[in-house]
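Board notes, transcribed. Complex of a protein with zinc ion.
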Amino acid sequence: MKRVICMSVMMVVMMMTGGLFAQNEEDLNHLLPQINADSVLRTVNDLENFGSRFALRAGGNLEVAEYIVQRLENYGITAVVDSFYNESNNWLVGDYAQWFYNVRGILASESPKDDSIVIVGAHLDAISYDSNYVLLEQAPGADDNASGVAVMMELARICHENGLRFKRDIHFMAYDGEELGLLGSYNDAWKRVESGDKIAVMLNNDMVSYQPDDDWKLTLHWYDNALDIVSRAAEICSQYSNIEPVVPTEEENGNSHYSDSYAYYQFGFRAVFAIEYTFSTSYHTYHDVSDSNNYDFLADVARYNMAMLAAYGELDNTVGVTEHTLTAMAHVYPNPVIDKACLLYQLQENSPVEITIVDLLGRTMIQQTLSIQTAGTHLMELDLSQLPAGVYLCRISTDKGSETLKIARK
Ligand SMILES: [Zn+2]
């Protein structure tokens, strides 16, 4: 084992509870109670009443997309149907050639802080089959995924009724053809690569309403380019809803591939994917109707999303997150860490520095506040011997921004 030599630094170590980031609590305290079960149920019912939202039925999902456009426009969001043609095949449906209909709604910022955007998205299509995988005519898809579209719509309603403006453009997306292989989200993500869009975060909700009343948990699937986002999402979920967030281990995170956020991740964009912790028993059957689901839970999922939108979209007059604006180039070595490691960071200007180690649920494990550090390179020892093995995030914050590193503790 290599010996780790570090300059000794006086550290103030304190355990902290609660939020790491400043946020305008007042705004959210006013907005979140307006989100309600009746309102999300209305969207679920409307979508269920199409009878089927199977993308390959005659005429496809054009009427569904037009309904979503209409609803968004009623909320003052500029929305269009964005169609595309796809000819392919898969094991379940065989060969197909069809038009597909995404919806893109935009709430433009009046005072953009930068050119990155926040996407809140969900797939609009549905599928159902019997136990022999024979496709069925009825595909109500209440949980999968009218629930995710209902979250998106509820956020649009809250934005409209409160005249909310953000420092980033907010894109409300509904995707067609998810059930055939993430067709709509691949199509949109590719268009965004071509147009050079920058995405601060893509918030994906897919199956977020089936949850027993006594066990409110939400799984937050993550992507390895956005660990800081899932950590923040878990923190926000705990703080602004009654739902217990569950961040899966790497072994349990395989389902991160099976929804629209994965398409964005494949193109290098950052995302987080929320799904009910207790998986629906009606999945892909004609039993997936609104009666089987829990709308108080769904409303609470919408509250988590609203708080994420406020944080990453930067609700005007709130203080949002700062991403990679630092100052500091930082490295930890060795990594994985046995007990102690060296943290190397560079400051471009004199600044106070705060080092915070959080776990993937956003809980602060160690916090060290250093008084003014001079511009230049600094080396300090991180003592992780008190922490259990696992993955942690190390945030180095200065008065100009922060940098987050992933640390594995062996
Ligand atoms: Zn789905």
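The CA atoms of residues 54 and 410 lie 47 Å apart. The longest helix spans residues 142-161.
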